[in-house]
Write a structure and sequence with these properties.
heterodimer; A: mainly beta; five-stranded mixed beta sheet; four-stranded antiparallel beta sheet; 3 helices; globular; disordered C terminus; B: mainly beta; about 35% strand
């Protein structure tokens, strides 16, 4: 749909240099919506999940450094119906802006008490909740003095192949947001705003952690939960 | 409501998304096990060492990240269908790509409808005991990718 397209980034966005040799140049072959939505989603049940995977501050002996935060929200389809019992995977840098991933060579400290990866399932209302620390900004060499705004990566499955979503959640008021070629690849401001969480005092844990709310809408209307039975 | 927009998986997912035996849901050596291997290449023909591939069909789901040579492999059971669905994620891909890995020698309506000059990019080649399937993100032999209408 045309309205969607302004909300999605294009494949080729030269300001994000890595797109130049990786964006396909042919138009994708369009498959009928019915077909895509009938294709069942991947059976993600093999991905191991343990209780506690949704609390990234309790995966080690001690507590990670940084600002404790709660990120919660609802996952729905385009008709606002909850997407139940679907897997969400998150990953992020630590409070100093460093990923534990061996590929990351940014000389900011690792935190022995923080891995930065979590998983959870949405409940019967499509709700999810993670506890973590706020990730730091980090430099990324895309252009001179390029810094990514703080963000948390999200991966969601939903009921069909068409609903698969991998994206990033950003924090409100981050001064790096207007400078970021990855977020700003989305042409329409309203699309970009869909990726920015809001501060939510109602989900703050008093005297403990700030709350952010971020809802996710997965593509698809005839969403019958594939893995709820 | 507008769907939440996509963003790249970035380069730093390797510690978070791959999982134990993720690429090998089937046991190698069993009669219906097949090994699919290949390489992800960019528009310059260079390997893409930071891609994540998800192969699925019916009850099978497998996930593999590419290595420094852009290489990947899966050990899966022979599908009932003519093909596997394949999702391609990578640094530099602001949205993931959807394609299919067709088994050699099979036909279906969708394959028949693809431009004959590009059709071969969707079909795995038999090479000894393995099926070979390369993914070219860009360039003269660019893989056919699919989109929802």
């Amino acid at each position: 749909m045309a309205s969607d397209l302004q909300f999605e980034p294009p494949y080729l966005h030269p300001a994000y240099r890595a797109t130049e040799l990786r964006a396909p140049r042919n138009e994708p072959v369009t498959l009928a919506r019915e077909w895509f939505h009938r294709a069942p989603g991947p059976v993600f049940g093999r991905i191991p999940m343990r209780p506690g995977d949704a609390d990234l501050t309790r995966q080690h002996a001690g507590e990670p450094l940084g600002e404790r935060i709660v990120i919660s929200g609802r996952v729905t389809d385009s008709d606002r119906r909850p997407v139940r019992r679907t897997l969400i995977e998150v990953w992020q840098a630590n409070a100093a802006g460093r990923y534990i991933d061996p590929v990351d060579d940014h000389p900011a400290p690792l935190d022995p008490n923080f891995t930065g990866a979590g998983r959870c399932m949405t409940d019967d209302d499509g709700a999810y909740r993670f506890v973590t620390v706020k990730p730091g900004a980090y430099p990324w060499r895309n252009h001179a003095n390029a810094w990514r705004p703080a963000h948390v990566h999200f991966s969601l499955f939903g009921p069909s192949l068409a609903s698969r979503l991998v994206t990033q959640m950003y924090f409100p008021g981050d001064p790096l947001i207007p400078l970021d070629p990855i977020l700003n690849a989305i042409p329409d401001r309203r699309g970009r705003e869909l990726l920015i969480a809001r501060l939510d005092l109602d989900t703050t844990i008093r005297e403990w952690a700030l709350g952010y709310r971020w809802d996710v809408v997965l593509r698809g209307r005839d969403a019958t939960p594939a893995e709820s039975s | 409501m507008n769907p939440t927009p996509s963003q790249t998986v970035g380069p730093f997912f390797g510690f978070a998304l791959p999982f134990s035996d993720g690429a090998d849901p089937a046991q190698a050596g069993l009669p219906d096990a097949i090994r699919i291997e290949g390489q992800v290449l960019d528009g310059a023909g260079d390997p893409v060492p930071d891609a994540l591939l998800e192969l699925s069909q019916a009850n099978q789901f497998a996930r593999c990240r590419t290595d420094t040579e852009g290489a990947f492999h899966f050990t899966v059971s022979t599908p009932d269908a003519a093909f596997f669905d394949l999702v391609v994620l990578a640094r530099g891909l602001l949205r993931h790509l959807n394609t299919r890995v067709y088994m050699p020698g099979v036909e279906d309506d969708l394959l028949a409808a693809i431009d004959p000059r590009r059709r071969h990019t969707l079909i795995a080649r038999r090479s000894g005991d393995v099926l070979q399937f390369d993914i070219r993100l860009q360039g003269p032999d660019e893989t056919v990718f699919f989109a929802v209408d």
